[in-house]
Amino acid sequence: MDFKWLEDFISLADTRSFSRSAQLRHVTQPAFSRRIQALEAWAGSDLIDRSTYPPRLTEAGETLYAQSVELLHSLQSTRAMLRGHSTASRSTIDFAVSHSLAFTFFPSWLMALREQIGSVRTRIFALNAHDATMSLVEGNCDILIAFFHSAYPFQLDRINYETVVLGEEIVSPWSKPGPDGKAMYELPGRAGQPLPYLGYASGVYLGLLVDLLIRQSPIPLHLDRIYEVDMAEGLKAMAIEGHGIAFLPEGTVRKEAMDGRLVSAVPPGMPKISIAAQILAIREKPGPTADPASAAARLWCYLAN
Fold first, then answer.
1. Rounded Cα–Cα distance for residues 8 and 280 (Å)
2. Mean pLDDT across the chain
């Protein structure tokens, strides 16, 4: 039995929606359904009553839900206790950071932090949003740093986790400039001649925000998705070479915008097309056995205050 099945099951019990939970767990709906079925096969009982809408837990499902929440929390606490025995873990702060922030925000943020509080020993794991979140849930890092938008909340229990807002990032469309200095590909495009669009791979958190931005655009955007990759840096490289429009965090393109290698794909006079996302630091609330003198605990106290 894979413990991720229990996490899937808890998500489904909370959302009562296969499609929504699949989205939150960053898998396709068929794959998510198969994992729930695998858990039911392991349990030897139906856990979900699919005859109702929205689906609800069966009596067996209610029992497993309560046990699963307790079990996963107990495992996380045990992992934290084991990590607490390590001197290295107390003096080094492990960060799980979403890809885009790992290459742009995190280095400058850490430098500013060191200027304010002195030397900080760190270890960073650059991951996609789902894997970074799971790294925190599974106790593999001390602090998660990731984008957040209210339209796509993290599947984390607020009772067990706490957050600090570190900043805000604006995501907007960028293009290589043409000989006249204007964007090679200017929005909005035309229905019969859509603009080449460089997109994020399925399940990438920034991709969800961009999809929301495109849907909510004040004017229809005509885009032809010709390329996908899971990192903003990859999209930026393609945009610089002139392959199409990429929706990128402005922190990612600050240098390229200054030296003229990228320009806004929104022409003057056109309504603003952008979306703001918070940058959050998230940690699991410390239990009674947590070491308040650890480097991670002292850093969090500084950030929170």
1. 24
2. 88
Task: Report pLDDT digits (tens) over 16-26.
Answer: 888 888 877 76
pLDDT of residue 170: 96
Q: Are 213 and 247 in contact (CB under 8 A)?
A: yes
Residue 95 has pLDDT above 90, yes or no: yes
CA max distance for the chain: 68
Report how far Cα 6 is from the mean position of its chain's Cα atoms: 21
145-159, 173-187, 238-252: least confident range: 145-159
Burial of 4-15, coded b for 16+ CB within 10 Å and e otherwise, reads ebbbbbbbbbeb
Considering only CA atoms, which of 178, 286, 185 is closest in space to residue 227?
A: 185
* pLDDT at residue 85, rounded to an integer: 56
pLDDT at 83 over 70: no
